[in-house]
Amino acid sequence: MDKDKEQFLKEFGADYGYPDGPKSVDDIRATEFKRLQDGIVYLDHAGATLYSELQMEAIFKDLSTTLYANPHSQSDAGMTTSDIVREAREQVLDYCNASPMDYRCIFTSGATASLKLVGESFPWTYRSCFMYSVENHNSVLGIREYALQQGASACAIDIENPDNSCTGSLKITRHPLQRRCFLNDKAPGGACSLLAIPSECNFSGTKLSTDHVIAVKEDFRRQIEGHNYHRLDNHKLLVLVDAAKGCATEKLDLRSCDIDFVVISFYKMFGYPTGLGALIVKNDAAKLLRKTYFGGGTVDAVIADVDFVKRREGIEEWFEDGSISFLSIASIRHGFTILKSLTPGAISRHTKALCTFLRRTLLDLRHENGTFVCTIYGSQNPKNVGPIVTFNLKRPDGSWHGYREVEKLAALSGIQLRTGCFCNPGACAKYLGLTHQDILSNLEAGHVCWDDCDLVDGRPTGAVRVSFGYMSTYEDLKKFVDFIRSSFVSVHIRPHASKETMHDALASSVSGPRNVPLEPRFFVNSINIYPIKSCSGFQKESWPLSSTASLVQEKAATEFGTKDNPARYLPGAEWASAYADDSVVTMA
C-alpha cells in the first residue's frame, strides 16, 4: 500500500470501503465489475451509475426461470407478475421511508416522464404559482410551460446558505416571470401552487435538507400572502422534489417532511434497468391531479361510440397507461438487494469520503508561480454536498482550459467523466457567473448545448464534473488526480538547469507538463493546425516533440530552430540555457 493511500485511510478509513459490510469495495470491484479492470476509470455516476455483474446474473436467472406475463392478464403467470409489481412498489416506498398509508408509487418511463406527468396533470389556474429553484434540471423547468400556458404565474428562486451550513438560515432570491395571459385576479375560488426543488443539484452537488424544504415552503407562503387576491385558507401549497440524483447515494426520508411528489430514476441508483422511473405521490395530492388521457388498464368501462368513460379508482391504475414495463419492474428488486446489503448510509459515507478528499486535493493544487489550478463550484461544506465535484481548470496566467480539452485528454487516459452544463442551465449560469446577456451572446456566437464550444471570449460555457458511485475506489480517485497533475499543473524550468534537474521537475507529483523538450530529437514532419473551428488551417513543415510526444511551444520551435534549420537548433540542456535573458521559463 502506498503512503498516499495510507494517509487517506488514516482519515477516512471508518467511512471508506464498507468496513462493516458483507464485502469491501475492493472485493466488489474484483468480483462484480470486471469490465473496469483494464485501467478504465468511470467517474460519471451522476449521469448513470454502473450495474453490477452479479446483479445482471440474478436478473437473467430470474427472467430465464420464472414465467412472467402481462399483469393485465388473469392467468397464473399474469398474477405472478402482479405480485412482483406490488412487491416492487413496496420496495420503492420503503427506500424513501414513505408510509404506504400516505403514499403511492406510480411507475413511469423515467424521472422526466414523472415530472411531465405532474406538470400536465396539475390543476393550474391563473391564481396558481409555479415556484422552482434555479438549480433544477431542465426536466423540472419544463413544467413551467404547462403553468404559464394555463395563465399561472412562475417564479424562479435562488437558495443560498449564508453560513454555508446544512441547516442554517437561507437567503432566497426571487425572479418572477411574466404570465402569458392576463385574467381577472380577483375572481373567487381556491387554487393550487407548486414548489419544485432538487434533493441534490446535479451540477454542484448542493443538497437541500428537510429544514431547507420547510424554510422555502414558508417563504413561498409569505409570497402568496403578499398578493391580496390569494386567500391562504383556500390555497394549497404542494412540494415536488426531484430526487433522481439525490436518491442514488442517499435515502430520502418522507416521514420527516411534508412532500407531495418525489421523482426517482432507477438507473441512477443501480445502473439497470434504464427507461424506468417512479413518481411517489401523496394520496391527497394525487386526488388533485387532472388527468385527461386514458389508456389501457386505467378504466372500468368505456363506450366506444359514445362520449362515456368510467375511470378506475386506484391511484396507480389511474396514471399507468397501458401495460407497464413489468420485466424491468421485476428487475429492480435485484438492484435494491445490492443497496440493502451495503446500506444507503454506508454508500453515502463511502462516496462522501472520496468526494471530500478530491475537493481538498484539487483546491490545494498550485502552479509553481503560486496561482490556483482549480476553481470548484458549489458548497465547500462536506455536510451540504453530494458525491459530485464540478470545476474548471486555469493556466498559470489565469486563462481557462476548455472543458472539452479536459474531457478529451481524460478519455485518452482511460478516464470517463462528464462536461458541459449537465442539462442544468440555471446552476450553470449561477456558478459560472453568466448573465442573461452572456447566454444570449453565446447563442448568437453559435454555442448550443452539447457542442464543442467550451470557451467564448475566453470564458467557460460549462464545467467538468466528476461523480462517484457505490463501487468507486481510492484508486479511481488517485488516477484522476494524477491525470490532473500531469496534464494541467505547470512548473517553471530555471535557466541553466541541468538535465537531471529538469527530469526531476517533470517527475514530481505536482507536475509533468506535456511540452518541455528534455531531448528534442524527434520532429513531426508535417502538421496541419486549425486554430479556429470550421476555418481553414495552416501547415507547418516540422515541429519538435517533447519527451512525452507532445508538441513543443511555438516559441521554442521558432526561436531555437528546427530539424530543417540545424544552425539554430539547440538540444538538451542547451535549449534551457538559451533562455538566459529570461528570469524563468514557463511550460504550460
In short:
With 588 residues, this protein is an alpha+beta fold. It folds into three domains: 3-48 and 344-488, Aspartate Aminotransferase, domain 1, CATH 3.90.1150; 96-325, Type I PLP-dependent aspartate aminotransferase-like (Major domain) (Aspartate Aminotransferase, domain 2, 3-Layer(aba) Sandwich), CATH 3.40.640.10; 491-587, no CATH class.
CATH architectural grouping of the largest domain: 3-Layer(aba) Sandwich
The whole-number mean of residue pLDDT values reads 83
Can you tell me the residue ranges where pLDDT is under 50 for at least 5 consecutive residues?
506-521, 554-588
Judged by helices, strands and strand pairing, the structural class is alpha+beta
Overall body shape: globular
Rg, rounded, reads 28 Å
Distance between the termini: 32 Å
User: What's the number of extended β-strand segments?
Assistant: 24
Indicate the CATH class of the largest domain: Alpha Beta
Strand order of the largest sheet: 2-9-8-7-6-3-4-5
Number of domains: 3
Q: What would you call the quaternary organization?
A: single chain
The CATH superfamily of the largest domain turns out to be Type I PLP-dependent aspartate aminotransferase-like (Major domain)
CATH topology of the largest domain: Aspartate Aminotransferase, domain 2
